[in-house]
Amino acid sequence: MLRQLDGNADAYPHELERHFPHALARITALWGSPEMDAYFASLLFSDRPCRQGFPPAVAMEISRLSAIHEALGLSKDPMAGGWNTFTDGDAERLAKQGS
After folding, report:
1. Percent of the chain residues topping a pLDDT of 70
2. Average pLDDT in the 20-37 region?
3. Are 53 and 46 in contact (CB under 8 A)?
4. Distance CA 44, CA 8 (A)
5. Cα separations in angstroms, 46 against 38, 42, 43, 58, 78
6. CA 20, CA 46: separation in Å to the nearest integer?
7. What is the largest CA-CA distance in the chain?
8. pLDDT tens digit string along 29-70?
């Protein structure tokens, strides 16, 4: 995952890795694919009422990954994956790193 984030260690999802390694493995496998947006949406917006949801720190990491995926131009639709947690300057910086 760190390689896919272009070495940006600040964006690495440590809490996601610690508590939900299977979800991080799936994100890593799907990164840049057409299925990534749908997987982010499934993680952030549950269609099953019995789901408890992620702890806030994990949800923020997933949201951040979704925003990075979008900022790097890897999403098929802008804002398809979830909430954007970055400022415009952050998104521009990350997009430049991906080029």
Report:
1. 74
2. 94
3. yes
4. 22
5. 12, 6, 7, 15, 20
6. 16
7. 41
8. 999 998 999 999 999 887 767 667 889 999 999 999 999 998
